[in-house]
Fold each of these.
Amino acid sequence: MLATALIAVTGACIAINGTLAQPSLIVSFLVVLAVCISMAYTPNYLHLTVNTQKRLRWQVKIRWRVAGLILILGIILVPRGISDIAIIVAMIWVVGTNLLLRESGRNHLLVRCFWVTDLALLSVFLLFNQIPLVVGAILLAAVTHLAVVTCENHPFRRADIIAALAGVLILLAGKQQRLSWWSILADIVMVLVAARATGWLVRRAQKQNAMNCEQALGELKEFTGYSDERIWELWATSNQQLARNWELSAPSENDREQLAQWYRDNSELYMFAISAYNLEYKRIISNLRMLRFGQGSCLDYGAGNGELILELARRGHRAVYYDVEGTTLKFARERAKLRNLSVEFLHAKDDLARAAGQNGFDTIFSFDVLEHLPDLPGELTFLSSLLNPGGLLVFDVPAGATKSHPMHLNHNLDIHAHMSSHGLSEERPGWIPKLPFAKQEKYLFRAPATATARVQPKLEGVEKSRESHQVNG
């Protein structure tokens, strides 16, 4: 709705200011489209999180993209002449300020410095008649959005201050270009709409994040007895500690018991890493989407802190939790008890097979766990064997080891061929794009609908399941 309002105001501004040359019109359209897309996603992405460094890193990254966009648009769209010099100056200015300011380490300082440098650049362009006023106003609306969307506190105050400064520049440039008061006023309104709309979205995200963090903090304090400061510290550092512990322990990727013991020993750190992960916007959206598939009897394999399976239990499904025996399992059990939810907690594969019994599961979830297990074909075969006819297996297999997650194992299994060999067919929701250049991570496979007897899982080496760990939550 806010994006639609911004588009409507921008269109009115262009109409009032008169006909624009085609290159300027194209630039204006692309900038407004980018701002609308950012308004729909970025406030939640940057503010639904416990990662205080995310906004700082995002500001620097987005400006590298802006520099590239300036160069591309300049080459393709801007006529030859003095504008070539303006494009080069703009790109050098953006790149130079990014290089100078990226190491400041303070988010609020970085936001202010970037805004000042952007305002200075656009002031030169507007006051020296290098770009039409309406194009300058659209660019001001874009940089105003970038300045407000990264605001840590008082977004409306910042939005109003920035919009006021931009309004003064538009007024001065409009009078110098001898434009009508209606044209000037329309451009000022456009910047104000962008600023206030962004401020409202940021404030909404901040309020939601505060409620999410308060609930998560309360549960962790009740369970661990730790102070707020200690929990925030563990939210911030648990992933780094896990990576360091893995490098120091260096368990053999082929030794199941070593892996199982490492995950048991580090279960408390995983509890905090999972908790922080579940407070991220992308994770929240992913969980909400995955919950749509929950039907009938549900199993979460590698359930971590229990986020998904507890919600399925609250919705009235039969809920079975399965994960390594450790702190996360205890925490999830305590959460279920406090919420008076009926959840069956398991940590051994033979118990899980017995729990499936003759009824099996209608939906099995397994997120952020299979990349930690050495026998991916065996795990997928076992999970498939637990499905009822027509049941759905929903899982992911992210990329292998990274610097931040060295414990991820590298799997080269042809998942489609493996699942097809067991009679399961893939389903793809419309919101999961199938891109030829992107590695698929999320999979949905449905068991045959025929009422044939389920294949009983082979449970030799049952104890291998005890390495089954979590990052789901």
Note: The chain is about 60% helix and 5% strand.
Amino acid sequence: MIAAAMNPIQAQTPQTADKIIAIVGKNRIILSSELEQQAQQAQAQQTNGVALNDSMRCLLLQEMIMGKMLVEQAERDSLLVSPEEVDGQLENRIRYFIRLYGSKDKLESMTGKTVYQMKEDNRDLIKEQMMAEKVKSKLLEHVRVTPAEVQAFYNKIPKDSLPFFPATVEVGQIVMDPPTNPELDAYAREKLADIRKQIVVDGKSFETMVGIYTDDPGSRDNGGMYKDVTRDGGFAPEFVSAAFKLQNGEISPIIKTKFGYHIIQMVQRKGEQVDLRHILIMPKHTDADYKLALNKLDSIRALIIAGKMTFSEAVGKYSTDEASKMTGGMITDERSGASQLEVDQLDPQLALMTDSLKQGAISQPQQYKTPQGEISTRIVLMKSRTAPHKANLLDDYSKIQNVAKAQKEQERLDAWITERLPSYYLKIDPDYNSCPGLRKWSLATAQK
């Protein structure tokens, strides 16, 4: 595996005396501080409490050197990446960390750096990782494992060494936002029109009005501010389109999105990024609105149970959650895309539901609170469930298959390294001669 991806917390890692511990090619260097950062990150990800020893540091350094070799090979093969590709990857990773920490402000507070600084600090790292991944993908594109190979791999594992897996579930959902009463929808728009008049005509502070009126919990406490907004930054398209038409200080007309009604104040334009404030007024829903949604979900549930429609067909036709339509309604791990999840990966509301649902069952319609704090309705499918158990081919075939494939891929990479080493300049600090793999690499390059 190539050395770790962007970690925004690295910015606060204390620095000790630094030196070059490896050189690959003409000018690709690895510093002792970089190895220490990787070691600290690996230690933080340990769940078994085992301290990181010298052997593990040797393996980390091998991964880092391999990464540099792959980048060098990418340049030889002209497998380059564009600035736009790097920007897109940086944006995706920053969005992940913002979701992880809860808000952009919390992320910046934890790192002591702005999002812009984090992007600039990690730009070269991400570029090299993307180049290395292109070479790696090309090398491994034809690596496959057959069922017989999976069986053979499993049989080689000593029975007392088989891993213990916690309980897992595969669950899907059909979400149905309640319809909006036309009168309450009109009232929400009129309310925002009056707020806008108080700001534009009467001269009241936009930031103050945010604190009094906005329905956006994510920006209420910082005056409605969102910084470094991009055109593809995850905001509603109508919102972004209106924002990028504004000049500094200008306030937008009323914009409608799926979340409700907005007005936007442009704070600062910065090329393809903007800082802005907004006020959101969401139309209220009545008990009758929720009852309509619950009754509709009950009818959909009956159609699925009767076999007149599959669950995934119902998701595509009825779900108001656009993200789940991409997975047939299945709830997946955000990073890996896996649908088989440990129960503690589910939100508490959903985890509680799984206790009473049998495999293959669909829940009764119910209200729930979305991650954005809104109240919506849904039905939930319990597609599969596994109890805590030792690994076996029946319940864990896909996991064992992935490990078997990873081993085969590593063997392919090792063979590539052995084949290509003589064509690379590689110098490793003598302090690491005790690492068997690194010593072997040094000898291979010395024999050119």
Note: Residues 182-281 form a domain with the Chitinase A; domain 3 fold (CATH 3.10.50.40).
